[in-house]
Amino acid sequence: MTQKRHEKSALVTRWLRASLVPLLLTSFGIPAVHADELPTLNDSETKIYYENDTRMRGKDATGNRVGLSKFRNTLKVEHKRELGDGWSFKGIFRGTYDGVYDLNDEEYGKNAGGAINMAESSGVSNFFGVPGATATTAPYGGSAIAIPANAPGGSFGLPPFYLGFTGQQDSTPASNPNQGLQHVGQRWNTAYQDANGFGQLDLAVPVRPCDVDRRGCADFGGYGALTSNQLKAPEFNGRLDFIREFYAQKTWDLDSGKQFNVKVGKQQVVWGRSDLFRVLDVINPMDYSRNSIYDEFEDIRIPMWILQTNYRMGASDSLSERNLQVVWNFDQFRPNNLGQCGTSNVALDAGCFFRAIKSLWDYGGTIGNLAPAAALGLFPGPSASPIGGVAVTLPNHFAGLRNVDLPDWKFKNTQIGTRFEGVSKDGTIAFSLNALAGRSQMPSLHAIRPAALAFDMVYPRISVLGGSMDFNIEALNTTVRLEGALSHGEEFVDTLESGMYSRHKVWRSVIGLDRASQIDWINPERTTLVSAQFFWQHINGFQETSVPSAVGGSPVKEGTVGVKDNHLFTLVISAQYMQDRLNPKFIFARDIEARANVIEPNVTFLYSDKLKFKVGANYKWQTGNMDRYVMADGRGTTGTLAPNGTPLPYVDSGIGGLEALGRFKAGSIGTAHKEDEIFFNMQYQF
User: pTM of the entire structure?
Assistant: First the structure.
């Protein structure tokens, strides 16, 4: 009883600490004021907002009940003012404290993860009597098979391998203990538990903040090396992310009604109007760590230091309005924030894959089901399968992620774009033509030869050409939105290429239909907004082939990792009641090729002009099995698992599974299908 009282007391203390910190910030860090007491400056306006976003999750793929996944408290200050001589200023400052790292630190925080056993379907370690091994697993850092640090040629195979090797970094297990670990992908799949035949590749990943566990920590571009405090308050960093907007602008009136506008500072530049997924809106990178794809783009775009000019040319013989925009993003390059492993939002589960292979390079480690037993010359007897997978412990600097090449600030690494906008003479059609050159906001992995399981991470140069068009179909009372973009130079993992990647042109497009409809069974007194979107992505030069599995079973796909033609559909239905104070909304999205779905019903209640509440749920499911995500992963490429570039039996081709590349076929919905949530949101304007 005493222990339970202590546990309850500790929980209450942690809850109070997580709850009171943001309140203290608003009470003491900024004077408590009412709207009519705000500072009065000539031609200025200041608004202060407080928001709490609380989310709870159910069970993940392992059956573990996650519990609290977010307790985010946000303070935002907006300020506008006139500076004189036609110049105006706008600033938005945002600070966040997420208490989940204190309240649920066994899932997200200093106590996350634990000791794990790696998959070994052959049972070799158990056959040799390794302590802690089972018929289908071997303890991390203690597999029967290990490669010494001085293995010739830096590649796997025979000779040599050792039995009973129990350390990862120069035989020093203290530097890489079996603690604070999870299986890569265990949040969304259980592939590592597959004991049939050869089995699935199994990687271990440290999941604690980087001040608690440095393994696998590296700056992947604003994430990947964050400490506990940086995860709790992510805006306060070296890139000054607490500054959401900080720019000045001025408009000059020219002859014939023309205008020239300059806007310079930290800002967001919006080129597209699609929701959930982007087509043209690609100037600012996105912060998917905040709430995956489900927050408004305005809240998850990462503002950049940008110079923007607009030359408003007015009417011509064929157009009623014309505008030429030039955008120079002169900030240091920054990619999308995909989320650090060990946090609640990790887009594509990619941050966990990256941290796992970075830890493997820096510290070594045990890989489950790395190679078939027969490939290593092991035929241990009737109690172990010679064609089953073997867990192998590797030294550091042998396999994994060697370098992360984040571009330095150079003029050639900045981003330049231009857009021409026009409106038809009768005002019914608005269109744009867009062009952009810069760096990809998504990383690419380049294999290091001769060992194809070692990589460098790069951000290749790309260019984008596209356009948009909006018009109304009056007979249907429908607004049509069209966007299309062709990118050049995007890179994808490709297991048919020696560098394990290939470069492609990619076409992305969306058709959006927005209609205010009278749906009596929803609300007979008001129209209901219905918005549908149809996305299409085509990878030009996509290559894929099915090869017989080297270890039996179904054929394995090799080639470009992804889907040649991917289609997504989204639907939003929004209604209003109680003089627009009560707003229910229904969101649905389906990734057709991945057969992954999500629905999010929510209700917003405007209690007053200052206070509003929002409650809802986010539920995801799949309508097909995960076999469609299975992909060759490079272990069977010539020179990968062999000592002198010569393929050994059973490993010349056809080695693959759901991990580690299946995540890039499952997509952002498929890899999150075990992250169902209920949520409560409250926002107050002072």
Answer: 0.88
